[in-house]
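Handout, section B. The chain below has 393 residues.
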Amino acid sequence: MALARSFSNWLLAFAALALGAIVIAAASGAGAQQARAPINGWSLCNETSYVLEAATGKPDGRAVVVSGWTRLRPGECRLAVGAPLARGTHYLYARTSAAHRGGRRQWGGDAVLCVDPTSSFSIENPPQCAAMGLEERHFRRVQINKRDSWRTSFSEAEPYTLSRARAAGINRLLADAGYDLHEDRNGIDPRGIAQAIGQFQASARLPANANAEQLIDALETAARRRADQVGLTLCNRTHGRLWTAIARRRGEGWESRGWWQLAAGGCVRTLDEALLQEVYYVFAALDSDEGPRLLAAPGEAFCTSPARFAILGREDCANRYYNTQLFSPISARGRDGLVVEFEDRDFLEPNQAPRQAQTAQNAQLPDVVDDSDPRRGHAPATAPIDDRGSGDE
């Protein structure tokens, strides 16, 4: 298990908006909120404050062709599937950009199709995703009954027009990029927004007359760079599938949270804020034919559940109908961000159990990783975030 990097101090507390459902509408002419002429084909409109990445599935005989990713700026509409459209069931999935804090949001449904989460793709959906090096995602079914044009809009709980979504998206990206936008009961001061935009344009060397698309693109790049430098990221450098969880102090108590399933080579950012605690705890179980292989490093007891969980407190797990697992402590002293890499050699053989560690109050954790210890792997040059796990939220 290797701690890959530590990062400099920067943090912004930012409350993410709740997300709403997909809104579906046919478009035979110019939409009420669409500024441009109607597009022939299936167009996707982003009425949210997030940068979205969308994938579509279209019928092709008895098969389904899945394609991605169509990037949508806040307030933008783009053609995803050209005309003529096949009448019948199409499929749609979207995720927020990794630039946004608070974990990746998803729009989807109950239809399971395969995607390549790391790069652009267009495939005939295979019977098994993993056999093709792909991953499952849950798509929403969209019934299209016109051959010339159709429009689907993504929305949040708070409805936006396209122009309001663009403005809200710029505000969100400013916050994600580290600019402090003070908000009171009357909202965000427009003067503060203008000042933050001016500061960003100067630092990014954007021209004063840069349009909204150029500003959004530059802000997303800056927010992605910042997101890579804070938080707790778990990476699977084994040859199998991992089940991972974390634990930490939360206020006066404790919290354990999981599960993040990681395919081989995958990473997930489990915390996307600066690390304020000196010690965090990680759990990982490596699937094998003989049973799960647990981390060899000593651990402390926390509560878990067979289903996805967020549990407050670490005492009386059994009496609260939870399981107990040992989580290995990781030093984060003086760091805003860490990458923890799990390698095959970090795990015990099946049916072997790790020993319990000293409590955090008595344990003396190293401030730096001794890379000469082969069990700890190596420190990469950068913090890899490739979204190849199923840690999307």
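Note. The helical segments are 162-176, 190-204, 212-227. Compare this with the example in section A.
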